[in-house]
Amino acid sequence: MNVFMTKFLKKYKLRIFVEIVLSLFFFIMSLIPAFLIKILIDFIVNGDKNSIQTTLFLFLCLFYIVNSILNYFANEYFVLTRQYLLYDIRISLLDSVSKIDYLQYQKIKIGELLYSITSDVANIGLYIDFLISLIVNILKIIALIVILSFISVKLILFYLLIVPIYILLVYYFKKKIILFNYQVKQMEAKMTEEFHDYFEKNIIYRVFSVIRIKLLKISEFLHSIIIFNKKAIMVERSASIVTGSITGLWSIILLWISSILILNKQITLGEMVLYFNLSNYLYTPIDALVNLFYSFQSMNVSYKRIANIMLLSTEDYSENKIEISDVCDVEFDDVSLIVDGKVILKDINFKISSKKIFIIGSSGSGKTTLINMLIKLIKPTKGNIKVNGIPIEKIKDYTKFIGVCFDKEYIINDTVYNNIKFYRNISSGFLIDELINLLELNDFSDIFKQQDIESVISKNFSKGQRQRIALARALYSKPKILVLDEALSGVEYSMEKRILDKIDQYLPNSLKIISTHRINLINDDDIVIYLENGRLIYYGKFSEIKKVDMSISYKNRRGGED
């Protein structure tokens, strides 16, 4: 916890110090009325008739007003400190997620990730509360015991007898409450994942008529949360009743002892009232310290979950990188990938200097994995991927040279224009009219007219239309390396063929790497990489591989079918 929080504590050390000072100041301020009331009572009991009583009364009223105003502004300061801390932690976590290797990222459940960035971060954000509360409450207890000792040593000793009993009771009940709350949090994390799955795959659940079964599974989760919440609430109420009864009974006993001390003139009535007022203050910091123990445990659980995510971060964002201005060639130098003991790619060696190359192979042969390694989503277990002879990890802003489009469109919930521009500030890219022509978007070109360019993309767009918008995004920056992974599988063969030919004309100097199952797109003179079972079977002209592999030659003769 300390390692994770150190950089944040250094940043907010001044605010933390100010908050500790202000907390102690307001604590001292809160004690003043108790002393003033004591003075007033002693005046009344002694029968003194003096204007000072009226002055004290007016001062008390003014004091509460001023104290409330100061508390308001101080709390605003405290709240801002925590919100800024939560902001920094969340940004740090999001930055770490952006650096996680793609294979590791796929193992993370989105629901649990969402829970971590909301509930777990909020829990860790309480670390400042924990630190400040620990210091302030210890000082409060010491100060109160010292003050109460001056009133009556007998009363404070008798009062302290209940403290161990009170702490043990609170400890017992809090332990049970934390257990139930932890179980609820676990259920809520799973619940978030279930909701995410339900909304994302709602259509397929409907099509297969299992929507009711899915809802039944969700309802079981909800029922479990209700049961755990009920148990936690009942334990909390039981704790409140038991501790309240014991402290109430003890107060009656203390009142009886105090009355004896008053009759024996060992303390005054004002001192007794002061004692009871101050002793009530003592329960709060004791209770707070017990709560801190459990808060720390809860924070530790949240920290471990977040730490596990941040430890997955592998991306190197160091500044010592090599700048390049163009892409001449791409090389896979003895590249292998092993995941969980399984060989995904093995001993891949080739060098691409041609301006266009196709990657072919059956499903699961390693085509997409190869592409993900090229675009730095996956890091090889062995070997290097090089551009212009330089390992891609050492190239500054390597991904800015790449335009990539997958079979899945990854359309964001925004306008057509913003889906294409995609937060990039590019002045030398394609014009919208050029993209309409290149991608044959005339079938819904009205959307691309200037007055409609800000329209939000409709969910009713076909897969082919959405794929072409995603391809427009990849082409927008005129990338040096264009990577297409089944990027136009949603359009008919003839349209895909025309679009690929136009891309050759629009990007004559760019390296184009195309993964496809449509063998008929490939000309005899085109260079191909043929993968099977994670091995490089062939690298060369397509006309040569057809002579070796009759199944590929047969697929080629099938014509326009997929």
User: What is the topology, as strand order, of the major beta sheet?
Assistant: 6-7-8-3-9-10
> How many separate structural domains?
2
Alpha-carbon distance between the two ends: 55 Å
CATH class of the largest domain: Mainly Alpha
Number of helices: 18
Q: What's the gyration radius in Å?
A: 35 Å
Low-confidence stretches: 553-562
Query: In percent, how helical is the residue content?
Result: 55-70%
Brief rundown of the structure:
With 562 residues, the chain is an alpha/beta fold. It has 2 domains: 2-310, Up-down Bundle (ABC transporter transmembrane region fold); 330-557, 3-Layer(aba) Sandwich (Rossmann fold).
Describe this structure in words.
The protein starts with a helix and ends in a 5-residue tail after the last helix. The longest helix is centred in the middle third of the chain and has 53 residues, at 211-263. Helices cover 62% and strands 11% of the residues. Mean pLDDT is 79; it is low at 553-562. α5 (110-124) runs antiparallel to α11 and α6 runs antiparallel to α11. The protein is elongated, with a radius of gyration of 35 Å. The chain contains 18 helices and 10 strands. The protein has helices at 2-11, 13-46, 51-97, 102-107, 110-124, 127-151, 153-160, 162-200, 202-207, 211-263, 269-310, 367-374, 416-421, 432-438, 463-475, 493-506, 542-548, 550-557, and strands spanning 330-339, 342-352, 356-360, 382-387, 390-391, 402-405, 481-485, 511-515, 527-532, 535-541. It has 562 residues and is of the alpha/beta class. It has 2 domains: 2-310, ABC transporter transmembrane region fold; 330-557, Rossmann fold (3-Layer(aba) Sandwich).
